[in-house]
Amino acid sequence: MSIFDTELKRKGTYSVKWDMMKDVFGTDDLLPMWVADMDFLPPDAVIKAMKKRMEEPPFGYTFVPPETARVISAWLEKRHGWKTNAAWYLYSPGVVPSIATAVRALTKKGDQVLTMTPAYPPFFSMVEQNDRKLVLTQLIERNTRYEIDWDDLAQKLKEVKMFLLCSPHNPSGRIWTEEELKKIADMCKQENVYLVSDEIHSDLVYRHAKHVPAALAAEDDAHIITFVAPSKTFNLAGMQASAVIASDEEVRKKIQEDQGKQGFFTLSTFGITAMESAYSEGEEWLEQLIDYLESNLEIVRKGIQEIDGLYLMEPDSTYLLWIDAREKGLSEDDMKEVLYQKAKLGVDTGEKYGKGGEGFIRMNIASPRAMVEEGMERLKKAFE
Ligand SMILES: Cc1ncc(COP(=O)(O)O)c(C=O)c1O
């Protein structure tokens, strides 16, 4: 039995995934396979470090020590071959707040910001809610894989000030190749466009694939801002701790200025402890997790093959699976009806991910195997 087989009691813990279903789906009797966190305990080492910190009150203001940057930097070098300098690091309670900060710090009101659809919805809202204009380029499907529309990208980069890249890509799990990333980075540089690379999913990589940080692929990284976090990798989203990495001092200054305007000063005490212990002691746990997710993926892959008209977009990364149900010809409302009312399955439907997302389903498989099997049974039932 794997450590990940243990079923945890998450109801009643203020879990967004388990306790907010009524608000989101109108009913709370669904099997929750939506919000991007995992139904697994974080590494033992993290729990231990946090318990130790818990025994060292009081919990007054805590600064992020230089050791934190060193630990993250060692992780990035070991896992992804990317050498970063401790001076390049800033911190943020989350990657979504960092997207908002980058938008505000590095563009002006009314400026245009580009992203690719389908996309994780805050890529839209953080641009629009900060009074910038959203420009979209739609990914092209080729052999059940997303490809970049290079001509459209080249055209649109001429008009925008910033490009928000999701690398690896949520919702499809696509990992962009080193060549693609280099090309994107070069194109952005040529057009004087900041490249913001959200790499929050970059540690959850399936065995056949390899993630390359955009700043590593690029010839020149001064215009690149990268976000990393232990939240997806180690299931620590509630700790609200993430990092912003920018090699250019001017860029960092602008980001810090915006953080200053918000009164943001430091991370939470437990966020710091969690982040440091995860990156310094969590590697073995992560290796086990990836094997477990591979097996969950295989269950879903086989299950979907048995459902007429449903196709899995094979992921390189992340426990979020992107399932093509367009052949079923259901409207978004009908799809919700069969998923939520008939099958009692709490998954996301594709429309909110923007153009190209219609008719897709996003399913989170980071749960004990028995729950994933139950989820597959429900998915079959939905489309019987
Ligand atoms: C691509 C991407 N960025 C950011 C986030 C959320 O980041 P945070 O919780 O640090 O704001 C998610 C969560 O699902 C995500 O998928």
From TrEMBL:
Gene Ontology terms, MF aspect: cysteine-S-conjugate beta-lyase activity; pyridoxal phosphate binding
Residues in Aminotransferase class I/classII large domain copies: 36-379
Coiled coil: none
Cofactor(s) demanded: pyridoxal 5'-phosphate
Keyword Lyase: yes
Alphabetical list of InterPro entries matching this protein: Aminotransferase_I/II_large, C-S_lyase_PatB-like, Class-II_PLP-Dep_Aminotrans, PyrdxlP-dep_Trfase, PyrdxlP-dep_Trfase_major, PyrdxlP-dep_Trfase_small
Keyword hit for Lyase: yes
UniProt keyword list: Lyase, Pyridoxal phosphate
Source species, domain of life: Bacteria
EC identifiers of the protein: 4.4.1.13
NCBIfam families: C_S_lyase_PatB
Family from the record: Belongs to the class-II pyridoxal-phosphate-dependent aminotransferase family. MalY/PatB cystathionine beta-lyase subfamily.
Name of the protein in question: cysteine-S-conjugate beta-lyase
UniProt source species: Jeotgalibacillus malaysiensis
